[in-house]
Design brief:
The protein has a single domain, classed as Alpha-Beta Plaits (2-Layer Sandwich). 29% of the residues lie in helices and 40% in strands. The protein is built from 2 helices and 7 strands. It is globular and about 40 Å long.
Length: 97
């Protein structure tokens, strides 16, 4: 069960209430869960995606360990340009899609 991180920026208070019910808020707008399963992560992201689609305010970034991805990390975003991690000759870079 990999570490999961969600970063929020300029979102409504409902996100904070929901995310703190399933994750630890280590800094304003930064939520972590050390052992969130893929199923729980999918359900949490589904809820925030539904809210974001109806509200269209702010941005959210989800990061988790995925051994099949470059750098063993996967990124999902809402409200900001989509990003991907790329391996450039052993150096990991974040690239806007």
């Amino acid at each position: 069960m990999p570490l999961t991180i969600i970063v929020t920026r300029d979102v409504q208070a409902r996100y904070r209430g929901f995310l703190t019910s399933v994750m630890l808020e280590i800094s304003p707008g930064v939520y972590v869960a050390p052992d969130m399963t893929a199923g729980v992560r999918g359900r949490v992201w589904g809820v925030v995606c539904d809210w974001w689609e109806s509200l269209r305010q702010g941005s959210l970034t989800l990061v988790w360990r995925d051994t099949s991805a470059a750098g063993n990390l996967r990124i999902e975003t809402l409200g900001s340009p989509p990003k991907a991690i790329v391996d450039a000759d052993g150096i990991l870079l974040v690239k806007r899609k």
